[in-house]
Amino acid sequence: MLNKLAVSLVFVVLMSGCVSMESVMTSWMGGSIDDVTASWGAPDSRIPRQDGGYTYTWTTFSSSEYGVNQCRQTFVTDENGRIFSWSYNGCPKYIYK
């Protein structure tokens, strides 16, 4: 019984530091891309759009015993720099804060 309690407690502690990638990306919706760059640094690419906005992408790499992983996080802004869309690809579903 004590063993199950200890395992449960460890699981809760570990998960309390986790957030989903979707919640991270969603938290920036409607905000300014300037706030993202202040927090994350300069994007790896910035592509102008015909509507006056931009598509910004940050790319990170990580390695494990299974090889190298590439995570791309993208935000799309309007002409005022407000984020109205996001996507990610190759990123972990959950990350530690």
Characterize the structure shown.
By secondary structure, the protein is of the alpha+beta class. The protein has three helices and six strands. It has helices at 2-16, 21-26, 33-40; strands spanning 18-20, 45-48, 54-64, 67-77, 83-89, 94-96. The strands form two sheets. It has a four-stranded antiparallel β-sheet. Strands 1-6 form a two-stranded antiparallel sheet. A hairpin with a 2-residue loop joins strand 3 (54-64) and strand 4. The longest helix has 15 residues, at 2-16. It starts with a helix and ends with a strand. The model is unreliable at 4-15 (pLDDT under 50).
List keywords for this structure.
single chain; alpha+beta
Helix count, per DSSP?
3
Average pLDDT metric: 85
- Give the radius of gyration: 17 Å
Order of helices and strands: HEHHEEEEE
Task: Tell me the structural class.
Answer: alpha+beta
Overall shape: globular
Give the termini separation.
Answer: 31 Å
Query: What composes the largest sheet?
Result: 4 strands, antiparallel
Main-sheet strand order equals 2-3-4-5
The portion of residues forming beta strands comes to 35-45%
- Total strands: the figure is 6
At a glance:
The chain is α+β, with helices and mostly antiparallel strands and 97 residues long.
Secondary-structure blueprint:
Elements: H1 2-16, E1 18-20, H2 21-26, H3 33-40, E2 45-48, E3 54-64, E4 67-77, E5 83-89, E6 94-96
Antiparallel strand pairs: 1-6, 2-3, 3-4, 4-5
